């Protein structure tokens, strides 16, 4: 086992235990400090609250690191399929540790926060990310070598980190839930601003990115670099992305309906106030 593999495995375990500690210990203490309303929540609400605190922490870390890699990683930009970057692999390892941690929490508290779509999302992402993290070198059978890349030292690392940009929308989604749990008025300034940011950021990182992403996938299809991936990775790359993006579109539709509903209610409220002011005049 080489040093790089040990680093990635250690990162996965460190990520897993860190997010478990945040969920079981840190979130209770921190949330009570910054939000007195946390202590008034019932057990079920506190479980979901802590889960979303962990989600926000994870999203900020992997999303911002992913953004840095997307903008500045020279090896990845030059060759998105095979460009190798240690930081990119570490970021995927952190995300993988979180996904396992969150899966465990979802299963343990299934009656409280269980969601089949999150299970599908997490399992799909873990399956895809294991190709980024595992190295496949020369000791394969001929059949296996025809299915996967014979030398996978950095396969799809840049692509995997590009997918992690989607996490930049999660803090806004979670913040919306926090406001709702604390019974903030729907039309409060903080709630409305967060709602707008949530919709815009979600659309940019999860929906607007779809056409150029699949456009790139089409542009490399059949190239020598693509063929070197092997059939299994080729199939897994396409299929997992389709599954994740179908869910992203479903969530975007749900968010858009909520946004349209709030805008409609805001207009009604504005019209009602204008009418009242007119009567007073």
Structure, described:
This protein is an all-alpha fold and 281 residues long. The chain has 13 helices and no strands. Helix 1 (3-34) packs across helix 2 (43-72) and helix 9 (170-181) runs antiparallel to helix 10 (189-207). The longest helix has 50 residues, at 231-280. The radius of gyration is 22 Å and the shape is globular. The N and C termini lie far apart (81 Å).
How is the secondary structure organized here?
Blueprint (H helix, E strand, L loop, with lengths): L2 H32 L8 H30 L1 H5 L7 H23 L1 H4 L2 H18 L8 H6 L9 H7 L6 H12 L7 H19 L2 H11 L3 H4 L3 H50 L1
Helix pairs in contact: 1-2, 1-4, 2-4, 2-8, 2-9, 4-6, 4-8, 6-13, 9-10, 10-13
In short:
This protein is mainly α. The chain contains 13 helices and no strands. Helices cover 79% and strands 0% of the residues.
Percentage of helical residues? over 70%
Determine the structural class based on helices, strands and strand pairing: mainly alpha
Strand elements, count: 0
Low-confidence stretches: 136-146
Strand content: under 5%
- Seen as an oligomer or otherwise, the chain set is single chain
Number of helices: 13
- Output mean pLDDT: 89
Distance linking N and C termini: 81 Å
Main sheet characteristics: none
Radius of gyration: 22 Å
The SSE string, one letter per element, is: HHHHHHHHHHHHH
Overall form: globular
């Amino acid at each position: 086992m080489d040093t790089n593999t040990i680093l990635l495995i250690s990162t996965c375990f460190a990520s897993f235990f860190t997010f478990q500690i945040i969920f079981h210990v840190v979130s209770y203490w921190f949330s009570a400090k910054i939000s007195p309303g946390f202590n008034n929540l019932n057990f079920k609400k506190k479980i979901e609250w802590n889960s979303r605190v962990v989600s926000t922490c994870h999203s900020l870390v992997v999303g911002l690191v992913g953004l840095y890699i997307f903008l500045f990683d020279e090896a990845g930009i030059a060759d998105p399929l095979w460009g190798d970057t240690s930081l990119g692999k570490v970021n995927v390892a952190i995300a993988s540790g979180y996904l396992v941690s969150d899966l465990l929490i979802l299963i343990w508290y299934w009656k409280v926060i269980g969601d089949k779509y999150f299970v599908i999302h997490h399992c799909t992402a873990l399956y895809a990310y294991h190709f980024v993290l595992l190295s496949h070198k020369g000791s394969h059978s001929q059949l296996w070598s025809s299915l996967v890349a014979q030398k996978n030292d950095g396969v799809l690392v840049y692509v995997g980190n590009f997918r992690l940009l989607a996490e930049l929308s999660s803090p806004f989604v979670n913040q919306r839930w926090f406001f709702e749990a604390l019974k903030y008025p729907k039309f409060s300034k903080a709630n409305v601003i967060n709602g707008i940011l949530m919709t815009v950021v979600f659309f940019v990182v999860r929906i607007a990115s779809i056409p150029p992403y699949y456009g790139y996938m089409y542009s490399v299809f059949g190239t020598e670099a693509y063929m070197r991936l092997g059939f299994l990775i080729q199939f897994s790359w396409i299929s997992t992305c389709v599954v994740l993006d179908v869910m992203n579109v479903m969530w975007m539709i749900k968010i858009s309906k909520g946004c349209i509903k709030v805008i409609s209610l805001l207009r009604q409220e504005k019209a009602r106030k204008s009418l009242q002011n007119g009567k007073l005049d």
